[in-house]
User: Fold these one by one.
Assistant:
Number 1:
Amino acid sequence: MQTLSLSRTLISAAVASAFALAAVNASADLSSRYVDNDGDMIADVPSDESQWVDPDTLVFAYTPVEDPAVYADVWSDFLDHLSEATGKKVQFFPVQSNAAQQEALRAGRLHVAGFNTGGVPVAVNCGGFRPFAMMAAEDGSFGYEMEIITYPGSGIEAVEDLEGRQLAFTSETSNSGFRAPSALLRSEYGMEAGEDFETAFSGSHDNSILGVVNEDYDAAAIANSVGKRMISAAWLTKVITRLFIPPIPSPPLPTVWLIT
């Protein structure tokens, strides 16, 4: 199997800007099922304690990833800690789609969850989700970048070359896989999905990556954290090389990868 390498070009998109884009695209109105008396745009904990739930088993789910079953082991230490801290059994629930995770939360079958960036506003407004923490490295750093990838020989050497081609997104709830690239292409390049380029929805970042590798898609918008995980796990047998594009000044924008 070939050694895999990554070289990013164009400009970087920090996850901080992704958060802002998610907020712009989401309604600030909570479902009528909830109240927000303190005005923090998050559902209040019921003042009537009889409305609180106290399940014997807490169910945890992480946003859909390459192989949900694998993440049961990745989260095992956290689940053990949660069980020890609460005195309850904790069950890992592998979800296959963002929609399934959102519905499980709304229906009360999911108690603790890690949502993708773009899904947080939906979870808050429709499922009563109360965000309280985010993942970070030991040094306090956090975030990922949205990147657009293509394959060699595709004829795409700059973002403008996407015109008339097909760009794969992941799902409409994904920030890096849909909202951020859509906003960027519209604001910085005047390109509208369905007008200037065709779209497809792969369902996940790994599907988009593999679709580009197999040349099923001309290009795809992905979260680079997923690409790095797939490469480190040797899921890809292709080498990602540098596609040179002059940098664009801030605000930070995405990078483009060329897969060879």
Note: DSSP finds eight helices and ten strands in the chain.
Number 2:
Amino acid sequence: MNNLLESVKDKVGSFLIDKGYTKRGKNDFIRKEKLHKREEVISFSSRKGRAPHTGQTYIGITSGIYYKEVNSLDKKIIQDFLNSYPIITGSISHFKDTDNNFISIPINNSDQVESIANEIIENIKDGGFNLFNKFPTLESILDGIEKKHEWLNDYHKFIKIRRQVRIAAMSLLIKDKDTAIHWFKENSLASEKSKQEIIKKMETNW
């Protein structure tokens, strides 16, 4: 079954390479930009089917936007798993304007490789690339957070100090240190025990 996944990945990978992406590791295709070290990533994953479909492999594909400079600033304040996380990520189909449901595509024989690769490519065009085009800059992402865009729910649905550190880091990169810290002071909950400690770290480490 791994051979089927590799065959699909090779065909989709050729399309992505033609679009300016390079392969990184076994499952990622990435396009880099210099400004704030932005990375647009298309990632493949697979899982075995559950009974009664144990003979099938299910292929999943995600798209994500990383900003390495945001992660570096983030790490100067709090060190945890989020330091390496993307700003936004999800199934490629989630970012389609219509029919935006999670997809996990089953494959069980080589005759399906061509059609499944084409299906994935269409979902990348309509979904993954749609994400990248709608949020081409940090400014557009911050604007999306402010306007409560549904794809950025993690940043505005619940007030969590950990996410707000990342928003402040974005603000620092496109505005300035004073604006970023002021935003954090105004928007993080006063009840958060670590708030003052985080502010001190921002003032010292940024």
Note: The helical segments are 2-18, 68-75, 113-134, 138-146, 153-156, 161-174, 177-187, 195-205.
Number 3:
Amino acid sequence: MQKHRCLIFFFSLTICILACCPFYVGAQSPSKHIEGYVVDTAGVHLKGVTIRMTSKTDTLVVISSERGFYKFPQVQGEDIRISYSLIGHQLVYKNVPLFGNTSFILMPNVVMIPQPSLIEHVNIVKTIPVVYLNDTIQYNMDAFSFRKNALLEEALKQLPGIQVSRDGSVYAHGRLISSVQVDGKKFFGGDVLTATRNLPADFIQKVQVIDFYGDMGEERGIKNEEPEKILNFVLREDRKRISFGQATAGIGTSERFIGSIGANRFNDGQEFSIVGSINNTNTSLFSFGSPSGAGERERSLFDAVDFVDPTDGLNNIKSLGFNFSDNLAERTSFNASYSFTRKENVTKGISRLQSNYIGNSISNEETYETQTQDNFHRLTAEFKHRFKNNDMLEVKPVFSYNRVGVDNIRERLVENIRITNDGYYRDSSYNSSPNMDLDVLYAKSFRKPGRKLLGHVALNFNNHDKEEDVRDTYRTIDERKTDPVISRFEQELFIRQKNGTNGVKANFSYVEPFLEHSLLEVTYNYELTDMSAMRLVEDRLQSRGTGFPHFVDSLNVNYNYRFHSSRAGLNYQYNPDKTFRANIGFAVQPLTLSGYLPREDMHYEYSNVNLVPTAGFKWRFSEEMDWSVDYVGKNNQPNFMHIIPVRDNSNSQNIVVGNPELKAEFSNRIATTLRKFVSSRGQYFETNFAYNFVLNKIVSDKKATGRSTIQETTFKNTSGYYDLKWYFLFNTPVFNESLQLDIVGNTDYYNNLSYVEDKQNTTRQFIYSQSLQLRYSWSDYFESAFNTNYMLNHARYTWPSVNKITAHSLLLSAGTKGYLGDYVTIGGEMSQRVNAGYESDFMNNSPTIINAYMEFSFNKNRLLMLRLQGFDLLDKNKDMGTYSEYIGNDMYEARNNRLGRYFMVTLNMRLQKYPKK
């Protein structure tokens, strides 16, 4: 019995030891699965990074994949350390926390910082100026020479393929730059002008032009949307910890003045900047424009080769702003910016609008003056957190408030064949627009590489309140009878208007690796927009007569409108290697538009289902050549002016009647782009062709009221609109790198549709532009640029009879700058423009613009600069604000005043402080 007890005890002890041993060993050293991603300072995944892992028992080496991914399966031992190395970048070392008994470890994204390497006995004789990557074109600033203390805006003008217009807009390879980053973080909310006019050029090591697919697109890994162009400025290593600033003060003739101040602190990822400006030289530190500000219209790339000031009217601008960004923790970043701009604008001009009908042509000639006071506030923030499991949360609130006062006086002469109206029109208004937008993005990561679950919600709350006084007075002479009939018209209205637009957009995406080299995405998008419009119109003449407020019921509005859309789809991306990428998708989009008029108890509704195929292909034939083809379809809903079912005659000569039964437009765009780089020669070529056609295009429907001078406009849907757009650009050195040639060409063709007297009118417009620029630099002594641009604008109308107009514009310009030693700079600019073929004589002007300046630098580091300048020496810029538009049966041409000749002296001081070593 005792023997059996001993056997039982021994057997039980053996079982316990065998059972406990694995747990004991596992507690000491469980195997680990470690993975993560490697990116550069712009967040672009890095391929070819050598990653070395060491522990007490293991040493493993792997290379990062095309998407910057790496993994170490079955890692044994403790004290795990990982090193990351890539030529041209700083070494990075990471210690791996064990997280208790966790067997799976997802490392935070590792950022590789560029760093030049010194190799003994090797002399670098040339820095590659431009590096062409898949979605990024990178300029190495060491390969270019710039004037000492030059601002970034001046340096960008010397980079091949980049143009900077007179108003500060930046174009890269023919496309407008929409946002700016510094070391991968937004600077002043991404404002382009603030960065280029405040950052010194010698602070920047690299300028990266990035095709950005949005935060959600970058996280998804599927690139099937049209990207926007953004700039990322990579700071030099010795400029990442520095305090710097500048102050400028100037005074000139014609009561011109300018003053600005800026202070900046960069401290290894923490950035703080504050800038302010006051001037009446049409200069601003901020490019955030006001939607209702006078003198603003869309700029074109071809303004870049002219030496005129492109701003209409005379401005007095005050601006202030600050920016702050910091890494709150290892995985958390935050940035915020605030800007305020007050702009007082006075614009004077003349215009001519001719509308052709059968047997009747109405011409409207106006002389006007518009005074605007615009106060614009904008506050932005961005919070981004990367969790330990690599999930990502991003929150972006944006708040803006705009208050605008406008006083508009127009003297006008309206004529048809036998009737003449001679009088004036005046409206004074106050507008306030508080707006709030909130974007929230959450990206869920999984152990399986490439698998993602993403959710994006965007909320917007926009309101617009307006109070407006309108006075319309004119005398009518009717000569249709033997004895002319003379009558007078007078109208005074007070209009209170309140519009609101609240909306929500929600996007959900699940991405799953599918087979080898493939991703499959299931998407669902939801959009809901509620709009409301309330308007009360008081007839002041009637009110004064009765002593009580008299409201015009036919002009009052109480209207609610809702746009509702949901979209479900599948996207498939095939990316076998870096040479080919294909995207194919299909979505179903049911949508509903509904409107309601409570007063009339009328309800309008329109429903439709859009089938939305998408496709995109990109071939990378070599490291220096690629070709892409893309198709995108999207929905465009009508706006307030289109749908409000009220006969608005607050402008008695131009009555507008909305159509609440309008359908939403559906546009389809097919585009193809070919890019070719020749690094050995420093050449770059790009060409793009795009075809866009729109179903249910919203167009105007105009008619004349009887045979009077009054016109009435409403809106309807039609099909048949399309446009074709082609451009190309070519950059190359000529003979040597000191002489650079840029050639840009654009061709646009529009098949525009409209209705006149309920009959369809087709306007076929052909616009061709060809520009050439030669830039020459001779060491540190001399640099110059020569520009030429030709533009043809040809329009052909089919109603009321075949008619056409052909306008030409030729520009020749040259600018030169010379350096007399280290402290004196002289420069001059001249441009000659020739216009011909326009209907109005004031459009066919040929102005000559001449600017000249001299700069004197002081002290050892040349941080003080005195500038003497003369702007528009021949006083011709004041007549350059011309504008033309040919749509439907209308030919519109206008000329606004601009800033004329003045002379100014300015003093600029810059300060820099480096930390103690």
Note: The first helix runs from residue 2 to 28.
